[in-house]
Write a structure and sequence with these properties.
Layout: E1 2-3, H1 9-15, E2 23-28, E3 31-36, H2 38-47, E4 52-55, H3 56-67, H4 74-85, E5 89-92, H5 98-106, E6 110-113, H6 127-153, E7 155-157, E8 160-163, E9 166-167, H7 170-184, E10 186-187, E11 192-195, E12 215-220, E13 223-224, E14 233-239, H8 244-263, H9 270-283, E15 289-291, E16 294-296, E17 303-305, E18 312-316, E19 328-331, E20 334-337, E21 341-344, E22 347-352, E23 355-358, E24 367-368
Parallel strand pairs: 3-4, 5-6, 14-24
Antiparallel strand pairs: 1-2, 2-3, 7-8, 8-9, 10-13, 11-12, 12-14, 15-16, 17-18, 19-22, 20-21, 22-23
Helix pairs in contact: 3-4, 4-5, 6-7, 8-9
Length: 369
């Protein structure tokens, strides 16, 4: 691999410590090797889980001697390492730099790119990893709590929500969420605080004034600064008085969420869980339709794997994906109807032989007076 640990979950999983600049890592047999500049070399020795720490400066000089020129790059350094370790080709992750892959091929190496993570073992989590994800969800809960408290403090004037004499906006609500996540020790990114019809686009971050008596989706998925593992939780709120239709919508999502969580266990196909959610909604009259304006109803997956990435294997969707023991997944059914609004409820669970182990916790109260 040639990547930094902020953008490559595989590199972080491999090295087990954070490095903000791209570095060379490789595995020969069971031996984990990392190549670091002097800027990171001493820290790598102290903090990484690698078996062998090599000096980038030393191996760059070796490459200059081997290729008999001063101007050598990453490809030549890797080629020199490969000769020393008797390596003729590499398996590389899907996000491996194309320029480097072509450079290595030009030097005679066989390159095989994998479509998913280069480490299939990432799909299942150790007890330590589950604790890291639990911590991520503690940070998610801190953000959701901040949103709930802000909505509780807001006043209703006409159709809009006001706080401290100003209209409360998605931007201000999102700011409070992200400050709470930072204070809890995590880095928030792409936080969702969307109300009304904006929430009917599930990945719309939300913008502008928030209205009374409208459903507001709050989706928080921060990365814990210390470990790199994520939390991912969603709650839906309404400030004011809900209509009967809104009550029915939220009740259906909560019911689908409960029955989906109950179906989680080792060996169950994620597609089966997803279909059970589709059936639950259909039986209660919440149809999913598609036209030239887009989709409405339930039109996304029921869940996804969570760990060093927000979205990773396995999937709980239309895809055939049997759940493995100690996988960690989200369960997040939702319904979206422009004019009525959107509702999504999301929690994180570990997959056990006996059922789901809850790795997130926050109340499901949604009506705020």
């Amino acid at each position: 691999m040639y990547a930094d640990t902020r953008t490559s979950a595989d590199q972080l999983y491999f090295a087990k410590f954070g490095v903000p600049a791209a570095f060379i890592s490789l595995m020969k047999g069971s031996k984990r090797i990392g190549v670091f500049s002097q800027l990171e070399y001493a820290r790598a020795i102290k903090e990484s889980a690698l078996d062998s720490i090599l000096s980038l400066e030393e191996w760059t000089e070796n490459a200059r001697n081997r290729f008999e020129r001063a101007n050598v790059g990453v490809a030549e350094t890797i080629a020199t390492l490969a000769k020393s370790y008797q390596i003729s080709g590499f398996r590389v992750p899907a996000d491996f730099p194309a320029w480097l892959a072509f450079g290595l091929q030009d030097l005679g190496f066989e390159i095989e790119a994998v479509k998913t993570s280069i480490f299939p073992g990432r799909e299942t989590k150790s007890e330590e990893e589950m604790r890291h994800i639990l911590e991520g969800n503690r940070c998610s809960a801190a953000g959701i709590r901040a949103a709930e408290e802000m909505l509780k403090k807001a006043n209703i004037k006409g159709s809009y929500l006001y706080l401290d004499g100003k209209r409360l906006t998605s931007e201000r609500l999102r700011e409070s969420i992200e400050i709470a996540c930072l204070s809890a020790g995590s880095i928030p990114l792409d936080t969702i605080a969307a109300g009304g019809d904006q929430a009917c686009d599930p990945h719309c971050a939300g913008n502008g004034p928030l209205k009374a008596n409208e459903l507001i989706i709050v989706d928080v998925f921060p990365r814990v600064a210390k470990t790199g593992y994520h939390g991912d939780m969603t709650r839906t709120f309404l400030k004011g008085s809900p209509s009967d239709s809104q009550r029915s919508l939220v009740a259906a999502v909560r019911g689908a969420h409960r029955q989906a969580v109950k179906r989680v266990r080792t060996g169950v196909n994620g597609r089966t869980i997803h279909r059970s959610v589709q059936k639950y909604f259909d039986e209660r009259g919440f149809a999913t339709t598609r036209d030239e304006n887009g989709s409405q109803g339930f039109f996304h997956g029921t869940g996804h794997g969570l760990g060093l990435e927000v979205h990773e294997a396995p999937r709980v969707s239309i895809v055939d994906s049997r759940l493995k023991r100690n996988a960690v997944i989200t369960i997040e059914p939702g319904l979206y109807y422009p004019g009525l609004g959107g509702c999504r409820v999301e929690d994180v669970v570990g997959v056990l032989d006996t059922g789901a182990k809850m790795l997130s916790s926050y109340p499901y109260r949604w009506i705020l007076k």
